[in-house]
Amino acid sequence: MNKDLIIYFDSLFLQHYDPTASHVENPIRLDIAFNSLNKFLSKESIKVDIRGAVKYGEDLLLLVHDSDYVSFIKDESRKGFHYIDPDTYVNEHTFDVALAAFSTAYQASNVALQEGINVLVLVRPPGHHSGIRGKALGAPTNGFCIFNNSAAAVISALRNVRRVLVIDFDAHHGNGTQEIFWDNGRVVHVDIHERGIYPGTGDLKDLGGKNAEGTKINIPLDPLSNDIIYMWVLRNIIEVVVCEFKPDFLVISAGFDAYRTDPLTDLSVTEITYEAYGYLVNKLLRKRVVKGTVTVLEGGYGDGLRKGLIAYVKGYIKPGINEEVIDELSEKGLRKYNYLISKIKRILGDYWSII
After folding, report:
1. For 324-339, what is the mean pLDDT?
2. What are phi and psi of 310, to 5 degrees?
3. Alpha helices by DSSP H, the chain
4. What CA–CA distance (Å, rounded) separates 296 from 270?
5. Is pLDDT at 1 greater than 50 in this prediction?
6. Would the pTM count as exceeding 0.90?
7. Do residues 55 and 99 lie in contact, with contact meaning Cβ atoms separated by under 8 Å?
8. CB atoms within 10 A of CB 46
9. Which residues contact 284 (CB under 8 A, 6 or more apart)?
10. Does domain 5-348 have CATH number 3.30.465.10?
11. What is the mean pLDDT of residues 267-292?
12. Antiparallel, parallel or unpaired: β 49-51 and 5-8
């Protein structure tokens, strides 16, 4: 058995659904992600350890979420299918499914630390928009999310390590994650997202609360931003943070909706970005910079779930990309991003050695 990767997946996570089949966040997403990845792994003769859902008691949710919010979701779920806001639905299974997703992400951190590897958590509903009380930082809705699975992975890791780095490359800002760890200087949260779309948060100047300034790093990108700026961020921000913050553990909030054909966003990322970020995980674990990594599925509503996820896992397990390619891509064609880069350097330069 190849112990380089453990995948959590379970048909339980398909039971949260809209019976009208009209919502973009649906069980088909997870089927596409898992089946496409499984086909790739089989073709490459890569054996991984696939495990089912984990479910703890609902008190686990209180490590992240307010008790009134947990009770609200439980009560609303009992009522059967309906929308709790214009974007977000529940059905009779939602509470149990979302609790299992949260529990599985929590357990994944324990396993990653024990094994010293990357654990891929293929769960839904997604979670990074869900804050302490649901809607976070003034967002109008929960954005398809119920409980914050990535936050569960972080909280679990913090029981055993001092410092956790979160990298969220979903096209939508992880406002829930930012809210939850706003005042926590032990958690650096780097969030790369499209500017001007839901939830409308994640400004460059949002740097963290008291005793945590500089630990919340937001990179809002204009529509049509492509691989070049993602490579620049990888080289000039993420690798600097790794060097200076010295994280013990890494959590990736892996949304694949920045992919160039995603129907909900207007970014222009290709497989090469996802492979490069997977390669980063490979490098940090191989060099023992971090003690473990958890990758939690967030968004992705089109081809990114097939092509982007496979590229990310390929970058981790069987990388075709290398340092020279990343260097080349991070340095060429940057002129269109000069204004953004100058702002990043001016704002983050007080906290990190960004050159």
Report:
1. 90
2. -60, -45
3. 27-43, 67-78, 94-115, 149-158, 175-180, 227-233, 239-245, 271-286, 309-317, 323-331, 338-348
4. 20
5. no
6. yes
7. yes
8. 15
9. 242, 250, 290, 293
10. no
11. 97
12. parallel
Angle at the Cα of 189 (from 318 to 64), degrees rounded to 5?
Answer: 105
Pairing mode, strands 89-90 and 82-83:
antiparallel
Residues 6+ apart with CB under 8 A from 4: 48, 117, 118, 316, 317
Strand partners of residue 188: 165
> How many Cβ atoms from other residues are within 10 Å of residue 246's Cβ?
12
- List phi, psi (to 5°) of 272: -65, -35
Choosing from 16, 93, 128, 129, which is the catalytic residue?
129
In the chain, the amino acid numbered 248 is: D
Q: Are strands 249-254 and 164-168 parallel, antiparallel or unpaired?
A: parallel
Per the CB < 8 A criterion, the answer to whether 148 and 102 are in contact is yes
Q: How many CA atoms lie within 13 Å of 102's alpha carbon, on the beta-carbon side?
A: 27
Both tokens of 336, joined, read: 């269109």
Amino acid at 207: L
Is 129 part of the annotated catalytic residue set? yes
pLDDT of residue 80: 99
Residue 169 CA to residue 172 CA, distance in Å, equals 8
List pLDDT tens digits, range 238-268. Answer: 999 999 999 999 999 999 999 999 999 999 9
What residue type is 339 in one-letter code? Y
Question: Number of helices and strands (H, E) in the chain?
Answer: 11, 10
Angle at alpha carbon of residue 112, lines to 193 and 215, rounded to 5°:
40
Q: How is residue 131 annotated by DSSP?
A: B
